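ok trying again, last paste got cut off:
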Amino acid sequence: MKSQTIAPKRWWFIMPIVFITYSLAYLDRANFSFASAAGINDDLGITKGMSSLLGALFFLGYFFFQIPGAVYAERRSVKKLIFWCLILWGGCASLTGVVSNLPMLAAIRFVLGVLEAAVMPAMLLYPSHWFPNSARSRANPFL
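nice, full thing came through this time. structure:
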């Protein structure tokens, strides 16, 4: 009886947070595109090739650190990993707006990829830790 009252609370407290984080991740991926449209390329002298490199740096960080992030989240604490990565992620995303040179922007884009790579697998672990098998089949597609 008690598990029937806990399950709806999990849907209302955990899933909105996970959904918002995924939505912000999408915005973060498109962050540089928005800045390019606003004129950051002209301000920093970014060529089309360099713009492609900046996009690739984000996904290189994402590629290399997604598995270590998942391993850390599984073996240690999902909550701590998500908390610290989201704090650092927000700081790096904010720094994108005040960047003054190209190497600084490249470093920020790579670090953003690393931080986002650690958060995403951890978010996928939440349904496996908080929902029983019967509800997990509905929680995963929601993500």
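cool. Helices lie at 2-29, 31-38, 40-44, 48-75, 78-96, 102-130, 133-142. The chain has one domain: 34-142.
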